[in-house]
Structures are given as structure tokens and as C-alpha cells.
UniProtKB/TrEMBL annotation:
This is Diacylglycerol kinase. GO terms for molecular function: kinase activity. It is found in: Cell membrane. The keyword Lipid biosynthesis applies. Its main location: membrane. Belongs to the bacterial diacylglycerol kinase family. It is a multi-pass membrane protein. InterPro entries: DAGK, DAGK_sf, UDPK. Keywords: ATP-binding, Cell membrane, Kinase, Lipid biosynthesis, Lipid metabolism, Membrane, Nucleotide-binding, Phospholipid biosynthesis, Phospholipid metabolism, Transferase, Transmembrane, Transmembrane helix. The keyword GTP-binding does not apply. It comes from the Bacteria. Pfam families: DAGK_prokar.
């Protein structure tokens, strides 16, 4: 069973859960995004957003959390490969952080679109 297709998928899922736990435990940027996702979930419950709005909000949260995770992995790999400062490593890290910035901006816009009618009804 261990080397079967299903066994490998289960083992891979375990590695993914371990990675998610390590991100939440050790990475400040993921911890901040996780707290924001909890707050936005509470806000969504409070305003009783629609099913479609939940889907969009969860996709936005997943996009940002995934981008943060990939950024953390790229930074860790870059630091492992070249622990000392190097302009090309800095450039790579900046590009990875830029991807997170795009995801966060889009998530913010989605949040504004979802919550504007609830916060400012009739405007």
C-alpha cells in the first residue's frame, strides 16, 4: 500500500499538511494573513454575505495565502543557495514579494466590492 498510487497521494497530502503547519508556525507573513482571513470570515458571517460572495472571498484568501507560502519557499531556497547578500538573490526575492503584493491588492479589491454595499447601503 505504501508505494501504491493511493499510498503516495496520502503521503503527499501529509507532507502538504506538514508544510502548511510549518508556514503557520514559523512565518510571520502567513500568520498575519491567517489572522486577516479569520477576521474577514467573522465579518462575512456578521454581514451574512451570499454564497457567491463566500466563494470569491475564500478564493481571494486562498490566493494570498498560497502566494505567501510560495514567496516564503522562494526566499528560503534563495537564502539556502546564497546566504550572503547578493543583488540577484535580492532581485529574485523582490519579484516573489511582488507576486504577493498583486494577490493582496486583488484580494483587497474583492473585499471592497463584496463589503461596500453592506457597509454603505443605498449609496
Amino acid at each position: 500500500m505504501r508505494d501504491s498510487f493511493l499510498g503516495k497521494r496520502i503521503r503527499g497530502g501529509g507532507y502538504a499538511l506538514k508544510g502548511a503547519w510549518l508556514l503557520l508556525k514559523n512565518e510571520a507573513s502567513i500568520q498575519v494573513q491567517f489572522v486577516i482571513s479569520i477576521i474577514m470570515t467573522i465579518v462575512g458571517i456578521y454581514f451574512e454575505i451570499t454564497g457567491t460572495e463566500w466563494i470569491l472571498q475564500l478564493l481571494a484568501i486562498g490566493l494570498v495565502m498560497s502566494a505567501e507560502g510560495l514567496n516564503s519557499a522562494i526566499e528560503a531556497m534563495a537564502d539556502f543557495i546564497h546566504p550572503d547578500f547578493h543583488s540577484k538573490i535580492g532581485h529574485i526575492k523582490d519579484i516573489a514579494a511582488g507576486g504577493v503584493c498583486f494577490a493582496a491588492i486583488i484580494a483587497f479589491i474583492i473585499g471592497c466590492i463584496i463589503y461596500y454595499p453592506y457597509i454603505f447601503p443605498g449609496i
